[in-house]
Amino acid sequence: MDETTRNDLLKLFKGKLNRAMRYYLETCTRCGVCTEACHVHASMGQTRYISAYRHEFVRRLYKKYFKARGKFWPSVGEAKELNDVTMQELAEVAYSCTGCRRCVVYCPFGIDTQMIMSIAKLLLVGAGTEPEILTLLADTSIEKGKSLEIFKDNFLEGIKRLEDEVVQKWQAEAGKTVIPVDRQGADLLYVALAGAHSIIPAAAVFNAAGENWTLSFFEAVNFGAFVGDPTRTQLILDRIINEAKRLKVKEVCICECGTAFRVMKQLSGKQPFKVSSITEVHARYLREGRIRLDKSKVTQSVTYHDPCQIARNGGVIDEARYILRHLVSDFREMTKEPRYNWCCGGGGGLVALGEETLDFRMKSSRVKADQVKATGATLLATACENCHTQLSNLNDHYKMGVDVRFLSSMVADALIPVA
Ligand code: SF4
Ligand code: SF4
User: Fold this and answer.
1) Residue nearest to atom 7 of ligand 1 (CA)
2) Which of 242, 368, 393, 414 can bridge 293 by disulfide, Cβ–Cβ 3.0-4.6 Å?
3) CB atoms within 10 A of CB 30
4) How does DSSP assign 18-68, residue by residue?
5) Close Cβ partners of 114 (under 8 Å, ≥ 6 residues apart)
6) pLDDT digits (tens, 9 = 90+) for 345-393
7) Would the CB of 102 count as within 6 Å of ligand 2?
8) pTM of the predicted protein model
9) CATH 3.40.50 fits 292-416, yes or no
């Protein structure tokens, strides 16, 4: 690595050093409480997957370049130089961490591994050594935001083709558009993923609840966040923020995509609309008597996987249970305290990297498969696309013998008229 590259990367590093980050980098006492917290370490048993050990790769660079002791006595301060070898180490620790933050709830100081790993990911982006596909996907999303006119007609045609399937789940009121798009003055903007499975059930539930809603032109997923690029993350987010402001909606509802929800909720700043997950919206409809569900539709024993970015990191825990109480007769919790639920092992961009990460994802998530099996349930529900993909892969790999279902789609299939 040449000096200019190193200096440029250190500038990026410095830009991440706010008060919280310095606290995370300076506080670890190596108490070891987080040792068993990480599903990767718990499943694979290798020291390098202990969360505090991951921090060290970033912390030693911090000591070398931003602390006096590390600058002048690197051996005493355990400081390390930024070079091609340390960059490779950063790639390994960052892309074996799903950012689930389970370790954070165990750490007595609340040291945030995901935040520390965001330095590693940013340095990889700065050096152009991040997983290229994630940046390409992020750029495609950004491009769509810039040239909507090119995509608009195809998108509208595609949406029109889904209407019959929505009506099969719930007949829309006479004269009402089944899937409204670009509706000025709608109360709620729904941001889906690319794919009918993310639109059809959601549309049926909105129509059943009599919601004044509209569908976003943009897909919710934020590949900028997966790759740890703050500029791309913000540009992808801005497309939705600008659309919500233009349509003057009161609420932006994010589909079953954990990262999209957390990023929108935590990074969109003060806006004239509130941000909700679709799980929260469905729970609200039930509470307000706007929809009703037929419990007899689900005959299986059911367990629920809390997506880390929606539950532990987004605070949406009780809402899923509230829905499940109205939806199933035999619900089995995986853990007494859902905040400590194991990660599925697919977050942080790992599922988006597909086959390339499959072997690691399977090996690193054995504890999740064991946790699901221990419930004895035959249906595994979740509320995140990434989790759904990863859990389906685990189901095949570990022969778990469960049906993996989206919670929102179960809600749509159980709709009955409000009495
Ligand atoms: S629990 Fe917190 S303080 Fe203890 S070793 Fe882990 S990160 Fe460090
Ligand atoms: S954030 Fe999750 S994957 Fe990363 S070290 Fe902590 S427990 Fe492990």
Assistant:
1) 52
2) 414
3) 10
4) -HHHHHHHHH-----TTTTT-HHHHHH--GGGSHHHHHHHHHHHHHHHHSH
5) 97, 99, 100, 101, 104, 348
6) 999 999 999 999 999 999 999 999 999 999 999 999 999 999 999 999 9
7) yes
8) 0.94
9) yes
All structural domains of the chain with their residue ranges: 3-129, 133-287, 292-416
Atom of ligand 1 nearest to the CA of 33: 1
Which residues, judged by CB distance below 6 Å to any ligand atom, belong to the binding site of ligand 1? Answer: 28-34, 51-52, 107, 109, 111
Nearest CA to ligand 1 atom 3: 28
> Shortest CA distance to 61 belongs to which of 36, 37, 94, 35?
94
Dist. CA 242 → ligand 2 center (Å): 33
- The residue with greater pLDDT, 147 or 281, is 281
**Residue-wise pLDDT tens digits, 224-259:** 999 999 999 999 999 999 999 999 999 999 999 999
Q: Is the model's pLDDT at 147 over the cut of 90? A: no
Cα 182 to middle of ligand 2, angstroms: 39
Residue 236: what pLDDT? 96
pLDDT over 60 at 76, yes or no:
no
CA of 37 to the centre of ligand 1 (A): 10
Q: Which atom of ligand 2 is nearest to 104's Cα?
A: 6
Q: Name the residue at shortest CA distance from atom 5 of ligand 2.
A: 51
Nearest to 331 by CA among 287, 269, 375, 283: 375
- 348 Cα–ligand 2 center, Å: 10
Sheet holding 251-254, edge to edge: 213-215, 188-191, 251-254, 274-277
- 349: which DSSP letter? T
Q: For the chain, give the mean pLDDT.
A: 94
268: its two tokens: 């969109």
Instruction: Please state which architecture CATH assigns to domain 3-129.
Output: Orthogonal Bundle (1.10)
Question: Nearest residue CA, atom 7 of ligand 2?
Answer: 38
Q: Quote the pLDDT of residue 75.
A: 59
Nearest residue (by CA) to ligand 1, atom 2, is 107
pLDDT at 78 > cutoff 80: no
Total count of residues recorded for the chain: 419
CA of 111 from ligand 1 middle (Å) equals 7
